[in-house]
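Lab notebook, design round three. We kept the backbone fixed and only want residue identities now. Task for the bench partner: fill in a sequence for the structure below.
Input structure tokens:
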């Protein structure tokens, strides 16, 4: 069983390759709030819904002071195809070895159609990155639903989406 993080815990810092071809480091977002969401696979129905919803509301999140990072185990080339196919504008990161997912408790046993498997646990975190680059969890949500999740976040964070 993977360890689940709680609000108030230190958020694991990471550096991962993005679909845009550059390296993104969480602690580089000093002084910002970052929504980090983990999803199982690019170009699948639920993951597409979630990515399209985040893209549609990216300006709302940005205006409220949030950055959004989506992380999956997909290779960068697949993420690039996903971005192009769906006209996504959010930052998607590749965690092929699943180390970051495991550090956040977003990879492990889960129930799919009544069968227990090991895989990516659809999860969303809000990380406060201090001016010195230290990262702390403000929010940790596991087993979220793809459909309606972005609207739910807008309501919870009182963002006018």
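Proposed sequence:
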């Amino acid at each position: 069983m993977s360890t689940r993080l709680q609000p108030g815990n230190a958020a694991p810092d990471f550096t991962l390759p993005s679909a845009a071809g550059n390296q993104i480091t969480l602690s580089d977002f000093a002084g910002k709030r970052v929504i980090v969401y983990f999803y199982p696979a690019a170009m699948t129905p639920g993951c597409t819904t979630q990515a399209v919803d985040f893209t549609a509301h990216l300006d709302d999140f940005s205006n409220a002071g949030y950055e959004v990072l989506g992380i999956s185990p997909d290779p960068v080339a697949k993420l690039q195809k996903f971005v192009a196919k769906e006209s996504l504008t959010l930052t998607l990161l590749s965690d092929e070895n699943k180390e970051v997912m495991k550090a956040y408790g977003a990879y492990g046993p889960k129930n799919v159609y009544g069968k227990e498997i090991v895989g990516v646990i659809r999860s969303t975190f809000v990380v406060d990155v201090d001016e010195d680059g230290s990262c702390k969890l403000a929010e940790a949500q596991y087993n979220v639903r793809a459909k309606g999740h972005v609207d739910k976040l807008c309501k919870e964070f009182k963002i006018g989406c």
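Keep this in mind before ordering anything: The CA atoms of residues 129 and 135 lie 5 Å apart.
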